[in-house]
TrEMBL record, chains A, B:
GO CC annotations on file: cytosol
Domain (HTH crp-type) ranges: 145-223
Annotated source species: Sphingomonas ursincola
Protein name (database record): Crp/Fnr family transcriptional regulator
Lineage: Bacteria, Pseudomonadati, Pseudomonadota, Alphaproteobacteria, Sphingomonadales
Record has Transcription regulation as a keyword: yes
Amino acid sequence: MNDCSSCIVRNRAICSSLTPDELLILGKMGRRQKVKAGHTLLWEGDDAPVVANVLEGVLKLVVAASDGREQIVGIVFPSDFIGRPFGKESPYSVTAMTDAEVCIFNRNAFDDFASEHPDLQQKLLRRTLDELDRARHWMMLLGRKSATEKVASFLLEMSDRLSGQGCNADGSLNGFELPFGRQQIADILGLTIETTSRQLTRMKSDGLLSLPSRREIVIRNRAAMEEMAG
Amino acid sequence: MNDCSSCIVRNRAICSSLTPDELLILGKMGRRQKVKAGHTLLWEGDDAPVVANVLEGVLKLVVAASDGREQIVGIVFPSDFIGRPFGKESPYSVTAMTDAEVCIFNRNAFDDFASEHPDLQQKLLRRTLDELDRARHWMMLLGRKSATEKVASFLLEMSDRLSGQGCNADGSLNGFELPFGRQQIADILGLTIETTSRQLTRMKSDGLLSLPSRREIVIRNRAAMEEMAG
DNA sequence: CGGTCATTTGATAAACATCAATATAAGTGG
DNA sequence: CCACTTATATTGATGTTTATCAAATGACCG
């Protein structure tokens, strides 16, 4: 059984809506599980018997075409929720991009628990609404933005979302380390790896950013970058 | 005050979770409003003081870039819900594509009501989860599919979603009338109007469909269309 | 019937993908 | 710790797709 009171994401995950008593019940239902980088937790189209909270690491949500083309439709960080409550099949695959740890629940048991705990359900609703907003803005990026705009938008969003992780909690971070490589960036932006790479190289030579190592990004001119994001 | 018991979308809208007593209270909060085709109900980025149920007509959710490019990120049909509960700004514009009628609520009043009615909140959660799934599959289309695949996918989805409206409730309809023109199709698919038109013309000459009038579509070879959708 | 708007069609250009070849970094076993 | 191997990323040359610009056709409306 889990000791939720010492959970790292205790106050950020949806569990934060629960009283100590309720947490005890939920703790009995969940179990911690490590996921190796590259391992797929849920497969698109398969029955998905579980939902989970992310404790550590970064995972991707992927929709694939029959011929193998992939589009990443979501990136999941610690304290985020994964899985599809009130649904049977997983609408996308969930794969770890880094070594990760999740707190897993049986979906039916979770659904029942949620139905009896309106506060938890409201937290889930708020999160889902936020995700939907994010997804819809991403649709604008995918459908209407140029490669340059895509990459600029991506870097700015990453500098925001990775801020929670690091130390500088002052809004957004200019220097950060991406938890994944170029191909994944391409799969997020609906581009090829070559186009993605070329955009980054161009931005580097234009002095907008520097690339200290493969996965590190330092935004040197945020104003110009925001201009570029369209 | 509204008489919800006679509402056309009574059993399909989120209100269907409510008892007659509750419905009476909600009925007092809402008011019916007609919206002319082309009129914008909510503006992206503005404070959105209302949420609503769609009674009649079709509306679009639009995200725009600073230079005017538009991406349609959602299409809303009768019995669907519009607006952003638990949030202040509207993350996108909501514009009527046909003459429409909605049942409008003050957002704060609705949020409070929802917080006290878990069943309503669960209905809203389920709907939001469905919308999110749909949005994410649309991301795959926008990011990874070719123009041909986009148009084919679009026609197939429309034939499904418009079925509820018509008489043939046998799954999906091969002949249907789109509630909007070519430019809107382009804005849904992340294409230009010219490319969209060319794809349709090609499909027509390939015998996949016929175009009896501007807005009517008849799918003549569904199997081939599904093949094309990728 | 003429005018307006939406759509189609055509010619050309730009953006991005694809194919192919390095280059650079990250592991691995000696 | 260093050569060797492998994976990842960059760069270059070329091709395809889709956008853009421009014009013509067709539908709808008074």
